[in-house]
Amino acid sequence: MTDIIQLLPDNIANQIAAGEVIQRPASAVKELLENAVDAGATTIELMVNDAGKSLIQVIDNGKGMSGTDARMAFERHATSKIRQIDDLFHIRTMGFRGEALASIAAVAQVNLKTRRAIDETGTYIEIENSQVIKQEPVAWQTGTSICMKNLFFNVPARRNFLKSNAAELRHIIDEFIRVVLSFSDILFTLTSNGQQLFHLERGTLKQRIVQVLGSQYNSRLVNVHEKTDYLNIYGFVGKPETAKKTRGDQYLFVNNRYIRSPYLNHAVMTAYQEMITTDSFPLYVLFIDLDPAQIDVNVHPTKQEIKFEDEKIVYAFVQAAVKHALAQFSITPTLDFDLDPAIQQLEAVSKPMTAENREAATSSSLYQSFSQKNQAHFIESNRSELRDWKSYFEQDQSNQSVSVRSETTAFPVATAMTVDENGLMLQVHNSYILATTNRGFLLIDQQAAHERVLYEKYVQAALGRPVPTQRSLFPATLELSPQDKALLTDLLPDLHQLGYHVEPFGRDAFVIQGTPADIEQGNEKRSIEKLLEQFKHFSSDLKFSKREKLVRTLAAQNSISPGKGLSQKEMKQLVEELFTCAQPNITAGGKPAYIEFKKEYLEQLFRKA
Ligand code: ADP
Ligand code: MG
After folding, report:
1. What angle do CA 336, 234, 263 make, to 5 degrees?
2. DSSP string covering 86-145, please?
3. Ligand 1 centroid to residue 170 C-alpha, Å
4. Ligand 2 centroid – CA 264 distance (Å)
5. Cβ 36 vs Cβ 58: under 8 Å
6. Which of 372, 419, 396 is nearest to 580 (CA)?
7. Which residue pairs from 377-384 have beta carbons closer than 8 angstroms and sit at least 24 positions apart in sequence?
8. Which ligand is closest in space to the CA of residue 115?
9. pLDDT band, residue 541 (cuts 50/70/90)
10. Of all atoms in ligand 1, which is nearest to the CA of residue 301?
């Protein structure tokens, strides 16, 4: 037998490696723009033809390269940005792995013109299939021009994989916007097929946001700026009225790098709680700056994900900073600036971070503001419009622990709220329950309230008290794709605890032997399928354990829907169950379960106060 292992030729190895970095024209655009930023450019021009498929060119006025460096730049692992492993922990530049140009050179025809200020002539280089095919002196301004033609000309499979020009151009514009928002002191242009789409003058961040995202935001941006010794947060969030029904203008940057973080997105969204409906999305452009040592740099730079040393503390800071900013202008009367209970319970909030950071962080006013319950909006809030509303809240800052059983409250209650249990309850539009209390009335969202009740019940069940099961008379079988099969198998033990008795059956199927006794029977199969769907939907949210996701999914899925008529008895039972919950005011996902209208507020509305 002959040996069969061979080394791949360099150009093939490079093409394979390039696949990771350059997936589509927009990835090349991102890398080239970032290189120009790293080179200290103050003007960066981007030109594309055919959505970057035939041409991507970036011209910058940055520091340029020497002839040798220009050649070197295209070697794999060639970088001027780190020299030793330790540098990784202090890196401030956008790139550092030395892969981008090598990857681009492997999958496109590239030419480069560059000159440093100290050199008399510049360097021209032409590259194809990772080989330098021409190098000669050239007259060129200080800075660099990189031109890449015919992306994937030598990898037809990848080229065929590209989407329509319209779709690829959209990706390019997305990447462009992410870069231009983080560097408002750089002039950027974007030209597509000879038509200029963006010409962005240097200016402030606010001007840049308005230039890029639209002048409708001009008077509708709220400044966020919180400095602590651990991290700084700054940027802008849209006033609640700018919230849109579609996700879109939401940008988060860590050390000027755009990141996608469902977890921190959640922190921002909960800061808007009760100001916007849960199905709408506010604008935000937020920057978090912190010591690079607090971030895991081994996360691949082309992936827009990031790992923080202490994610929970970042979450809490972001949420508090946005709340604080919104409170500065907000006079929305029914607001109750409670911190997300999930955060209050976090160990990180009571015991912040590592020993070195702890002292610094706890001494910051922002930290103190959110570590004290209900104080998030009181910090430095001597703005006049706030002061008026403040007086309402101050009377009972402890109403967080609103409960019909006041002996269960954790801290002193000024005027404990009690639901008038003998009073009639009113169902509005078969969706909301109106219940009077000793100090006004409550408008309860029946679905959210039930979701909260189920959530706490399921949490209990997951901790040991199983939910009773009703056995199916005619057990349904469920056939699943390999992925769903793996997912369901993984969930089976937890599901069992929550009242779903599902067993493997043959290779790819399952039998549903029983479902929780208190949910409507008859659609067991659909219910499991839906559960898997929703669970997957949730899965990008990395902060939760599998069990927490499952419990949240089930609570949402099994809660009574809006539009369902309820009898007096059912309403009373729901309200009673709600107020025996540990955290009755919101769902686990942060939707309000009820809004309290206090008498004083009603009087104010009718100008009697
Ligand atoms: P990285 O950015 O990770 O270092 P790249 O492959 O993107 O790796 O670039 C390699 C090197 O080429 C950079 O470290 C830098 O020294 C140099 N370089 C790339 N683009 C430019 C540019 N526009 N101006 C000046 N130098 C550049
Ligand atoms: Mg780079």
Report:
1. 65
2. GGGGG--SS--SS-HHHHHHHHSEEEEEEE-TT-SSEEEEEEETTEEEEEEEE---SEEE
3. 25
4. 26
5. yes
6. 419
7. 377/323, 377/324, 377/327, 377/337, 379/324, 381/327, 381/328, 383/328
8. 1
9. low
10. 3
* Binding site membership of 100 for ligand 1 (Cβ less than 6 Å): yes
The greatest distance separating any two alpha carbons of the chain, rounded to the nearest whole angstrom, comes to: 98
CA torsion sign for 578, 580, 586, 590 is negative
Give distance in angstroms: CA of 460 to centre of ligand 2.
50
- Give the separation between CA 531 and CA 440, rounded to whole angstroms: 38
Q: What token pair was written down for 12?
A: 């093939």
Cα 409 to Cα 579: distance, rounded to the nearest angstrom:
11
Binned at pLDDT 50, 70 and 90, residue 359 comes out as low
Phi (first) and psi of residue 523, to 5 degrees: -130, 45
| pLDDT(254) > 80 | yes
In this structure, are residues 447 and 431 in contact, taking their beta carbons and an 8 Å threshold? yes
C-beta of 107 in contact with ligand 1 (< 6 A): no
In the reported structure, the alpha carbon of residue 76 is separated from the centroid of ligand 1 by a whole-number distance in angstroms of: 11
What span, in angstroms and rounded, lies between the C-alpha atoms of 446 and 433? 6
Q: Would you call 506 helix, strand, or coil by DSSP? A: coil
**C-alpha 165 chain-centroid distance:** 28
Does ligand 1 lie within 6 Å of residue 78's CB atom?
A: yes
Q: What is the DSSP string of 190-222?
A: EEETTEEEEEE-S--HHHHHHHHH-GGGTT-EE
Amino acid at 80: S
Rg value, the chain, Cα = 29
Strand partners, 586: 592
pLDDT tens digit string along 456-501?
Answer: 888 888 777 788 888 887 788 888 877 778 788 888 888 988 889 9
Q: Provide the pLDDT for residue 112.
A: 98
8 Å CB contact between 171 and 30: no
**What's the CA gap between 476 and 474, in Å, rounded?**
6
Q: pTM for the complete prediction?
A: 0.59
**Helices and strands: H and E segment counts in the chain:** 20, 22
